Amino acid sequence: MPEWQPAQLVAAHDETATARSLVFDIPGWPGHLAGQHVDVRVTAPDGYTASREYSIASGEVDAAPSGLGASGVNVELSVEELDDGEVSPYLVRGLDIGDHLEIRGPVGGYFVWTAAQTEPVQLIAGGSGVVPLMSMLRTHAAAGHPSPMRLLYSVRGPQFAFYTDELRRLVDSSKGSLTVDYAFTREAPSGADRSIGRLMRDELEMLTVPVASSPTTYLCGPNSFVEGISGWLVELGHPASRILTERFGGA
């Protein structure tokens, strides 16, 4: 397991009314792959500590240069505040530029995408499950990767969607290699082609890379969302071994 490293908040902006993207400078960062995550530990003035796991939003980066006085690497996390959370409310509302906390990672080698992959890729996100998939999208764009990558993003409404402007820019600059589709479950923007409601099996088939193209699918979201979507993908003929999942608690 990697050791805890000091991290300083150097930039931050709101993604939604309840979510915030945080950029940390981490000297000695060993580098990370798109899709990996970290542990974040905060310490209260009385010495009490709490840690939680968060996906990395920034694209793949190499290790920080070694040597005395070497600068750190900027690592971005995007955090959704939970009503009963212990760490997320502090990260979203309490952490100021210049503040420090501890980060351990990167962690995980299963749910990752690298530019060496040549097959089509289907990304499916539920809510804040878009965060590790954004790391893959950024890595794909930075590499100028020609292989198709498609994102299907299920979210309550446009005001809850992460990275809206950046996703639009990535699509516009991708020369057709990237497609983004939204499934709004409770509120849709005016003029939307799709009616509000949860994703269903038939719609999933229409909005994802076909089985015949042999895609690798990365699926991240709440437990129930991941269970339902992965089951439908298998029913549609996708091999279970090509469906990689990450999930978090809550429905």
From TrEMBL:
Superkingdom in the source lineage: Bacteria
Keyword RNA-binding: no
CDD domains in alphabetical order: FNR_iron_sulfur_binding_3
Cofactor(s) required, per the database record: FAD
GO molecular function: 2 iron, 2 sulfur cluster binding; oxidoreductase activity
InterPro entries: Cbr1-like_FAD-bd_dom, FAD-bd_FR_type, FNR_nucleotide-bd, MRET, OxRdtase_FAD/NAD-bd, Riboflavin_synthase-like_b-brl
FAD-binding FR-type domain location: 2-113
Keywords of the record: 2Fe-2S, Iron, Iron-sulfur, Metal-binding
Entry coiled-coil feature ranges: none
Protein known as: Oxidoreductase
